[in-house]
Design brief:
This protein is an alpha/beta fold. It has a single domain, classed as Rossmann fold (3-Layer(aba) Sandwich), CATH 3.40.50.300. The protein has eight helices and five strands. It has a five-stranded parallel beta sheet, sandwiched between helices. It is globular. Bound molecules: BIS(adenosine)-5'-pentaphosphate. The site of BIS(adenosine)-5'-pentaphosphate has 29 residues, from helix 1, helix 2, helix 3, helix 6 and helix 8. BIS(adenosine)-5'-pentaphosphate binds next to helix 1, helix 2, helix 3, helix 6 and helix 8.
Length: about 190
Amino acid sequence: MRIVLLGAPGSGKGTQAALLKDHYSIPHISTGVLLREAVANETALGKQAKAIMDRGELVPDDVMLDLIRERLGQEDVRAGYILDGYPRNLAQAEALDAVLGDVGLPVQEAVLIEVDEDQVVERIAKRAMEEGRSDDTEEVVRKRMRVYEEQTAPVAGHYADLGLLTRVFGEGTIEEVLERIKGALQQGVDG
Ligand code: AP5
């Protein structure tokens, strides 16, 4: 199964990807996690990315393409993948199509997790208190939401044009959302 998860900040992409990873035994590739690891390890990438992430903006496309190309070149991806946080704009979506076309592993399903804005604000406020992620402050979350609306939301249209997009209601319990996603993926496989 080769899946892209789309959705606003706090919509549950990371939570659901972790569960789908166990269910399908395929890697979960989160560019947010890869970047936060680079920041924690103080690598050159991490030093470049930190200030950008803390402002709620997107890390430059060429940097992200190098990162994702390297990850998608690893052996475990041949079994399938769940992409979370990439692609994040139309240029990234087109670059990803080219990279995956080259390795013969094109996206099979794109799932857009839809959650009302009030709900995501509430979830992120809760996470901010529990985990203290540096980009979860109210001001930065507002910026991330704007970046999502302007740059990332159009990516759903890209996959809709390819006939690969499914929309899933992302509210309710984590288990309820997971069952909806699994149902949508199964329908896609069954055609
Ligand atoms: P990234 O880490 O991708 O952040 P994001 O897209 O803003 O997503 P979040 O992690 O906030 O939310 P999520 O949808 O994964 O939800 P989650 O499952 O955590 O990116 C961070 C930054 O890195 C970007 O701003 C950018 O700077 C940079 N970056 C990353 N990728 C990039 C790219 N491709 N190009 C350029 N820059 C890039 O859930 C949120 C909370 O809600 C959790 O606490 C969870 O427990 C809870 N929750 C989940 N589901 C439910 C539910 N059903 N009910 C109640 N609570 C729930």
